[in-house]
Amino acid sequence: MALLDNKRESRSADVRGARVQLIDLVKIYGDTPAVDHVSIDIAPGEFLTLLGPSGSGKTTTLMMIAGFVTPSGGQILVNGEDIAYLPPHQRNIGVVFQSYALFPHMTVADNIAFPLRMRKYPKADIARAVAEALELVRLTGFENRKPRQLSGGQQQRVALARAMVFRPPVLLMDEPLGALDKKLREEMQVEIKRIQESTGITTVYVTHDQEEALTLSDRIVVMRNGRIEQVGTPRELYEQPVSTFVADFIGESNFIEGQCERDGSRLLLRTSDGITLSLPDGADVQPGSRVRMAIRPERIVLVTETLTDNVLDGTVEEVIYVGESTRLRVRITGEWSLSVKQQNRADAAVWKRGDRVRVGWKASDAVLVS
């Protein structure tokens, strides 16, 4: 399916979006850097998510790409052209906000047609483009309704159709699902990914929701205090976080600290209370140095026989049933405990507070973080 581009011609769905390059981008408010020398190279057609807590700089970065915030320094290139200081209406970029920003007095069709009318498209082209956009977001038949007659998810689809109807090379989305309930948000994640893949528009998406970022993204940029903490695919960030912040912000991790020791060919971590644990093979760390190991709760198993590298005895001090899984808090010593996630299969054991258990994990399932 094709939407109209800015030359008022049809384009096939396999046409990719633009390459977007942020080069040493800076935004300073007073003496405070909100965005601190950020550089990202976004491939044509890529779905890239800016992820981070409040105040990390992700929305400011997006607003600079959109043109609503003026950079203090750096470049924003779209297909090689620096647009950093162009006004928003000259950038030809689609934007979707959390608030939807639909015109309440206009019909769905008129809302979607608005950017085409501003660009003075012929009426016949507008009608065709609006019909195609409605079909793309699965709202054919809703063209004469007003926003107040739509559900939250339907309003979000209209906002998305309006942002894409003129076939921009870049689509920006700022927390677009924040106002929706969990089930609807999950449904819209699938729809957004389907639409983005079918059109090939380069998409930059802002969220603080880790699961949403993992679901939607080709790559994720984790931001903290205006800087990039790590860039990678969802799998890379989840499986190989480079820092405690990333390991803790994306998903959940147990952190174990100690001193590195060598036992023959093996590298060990010795905790302050004398427990020794095997480190992953190939760990780039020297004996005698302080290390921090991260292990995901779902990688820890409740052991009935020694099948793992690291086995510890502990006591269950908390049991939380969450449907598909049960989360256990297992006290290992007086100083530290581990979070364990057990899938609720039919044959899974049922634990209660005070139960003595053995937990363990493979050394290769842990990762060292800074």
TrEMBL record:
It comes from the Bacteria. SMART domains: AAA. One of its GO terms (molecular function) is ATP hydrolysis activity. Keywords: ATP-binding, Cell membrane, Membrane, Nucleotide-binding, Translocase, Transport. Residues 20-250 form the ABC transporter domain. Its EC number is 7.6.2.11. One of its GO terms (cellular component) is ATP-binding cassette (ABC) transporter complex. Coiled coil: none annotated. It is an enzyme of class 7 (translocase). The keyword Nucleotide-binding applies. CDD domains: ABC_PotA_N (cd03300). It catalyses: ATP + H2O + polyamine-[polyamine-binding protein]Side 1 = ADP + phosphate + polyamineSide 2 + [polyamine-binding protein]Side 1. PANTHER family: SPERMIDINE/PUTRESCINE IMPORT ATP-BINDING PROTEIN POTA, SPERMIDINE_PUTRESCINE IMPORT ATP-BINDING PROTEIN POTA. NCBIfam families: potA. The complex is composed of two ATP-binding proteins (PotA), two transmembrane proteins (PotB and PotC) and a solute-binding protein (PotD). Part of the ABC transporter complex PotABCD involved in spermidine/putrescine import. Responsible for energy coupling to the transport system. Belongs to the ABC transporter superfamily. Spermidine/putrescine importer (TC 3.A.1.11.1) family. This is Spermidine/putrescine import ATP-binding protein PotA. The lineage of its organism: Bacteria, Pseudomonadati, Thermomicrobiota, Thermomicrobia, Sphaerobacterales. The gene is potA.
